[in-house]
Predict the structure.
Amino acid sequence: MRNQQPILYGYWRSSAAYRVRIALNLKGIEVEHRSVHLVRDGGEQHRTEYRQMNPQGLVPFFIDGDGTSVSQSLAIVEYLDETRLAPALLPWEPGARAQIRSFSQHIASDIHPLNNTRVLQYLSEELQVDDATKRGWYRHWVALGLAALEPQAAALEGAFSLGERPGLLELCLVPQLYNARRYECDLSAYPALVALDARAREVEAFRRAAPEAQPDATP
Ligand SMILES: N[C@@H](CCC(=O)N[C@@H](CS)C(=O)NCC(=O)O)C(=O)O
């Protein structure tokens, strides 16, 4: 029984937490948001209390009203989709489901991990890489990843991956492009991805989940 309000541990700028915020909004699930500052004091994600709760030590981390706890954004999103069926974030047909998962996992498993805070920190602090080289690293992996996804976005038949509605695909794409813009990546080679991102960002659930709309956002 879910007798408590669910809790989402996140951070305004975390693109992985941004994915989950969109999913929660699309499904109309109210949660308590708890901010884990990823930079202040060396990063609150490394604190003992947080690690005891979430040994993976990253955000997002979700605790449902019945105490079920889940880390990893895509695991959380699929858990939400399986426990609160409507509106679905994936289509029903297995082939279409697999293709959307493939798109999402390319972002979550192949692009994002190479550009994560701890990876960028390791480049600067341990490998003594300068800022320009670090940005080059970032842009290289984003360009490779987005180029691979552009044909799939171009082949979509409706306005969104679910026809009239956005779902899992868009909730991965929009945060990834937010990150890419933050690092001033050139997106001109991906017109289908950019157009899909722009359409999705007009949807209220995406607007409310935007980093700058979060209470812990800082200028
Ligand atoms: N694969 C994980 C990635 C989570 C992740 O990397 N979160 C970042 C923020 S976007 C984080 O907590 N970084 C803290 C750190 O690198 O120490 C997911 O999808 O949830």
Q: What stands out?
A: Residues 103 and 149 are 7 Å apart (CA to CA). The radius of gyration is 17 Å. The chain has two domains: 7-87+208-213, 94-203. Residues 131-154 form the longest helix (24 residues).
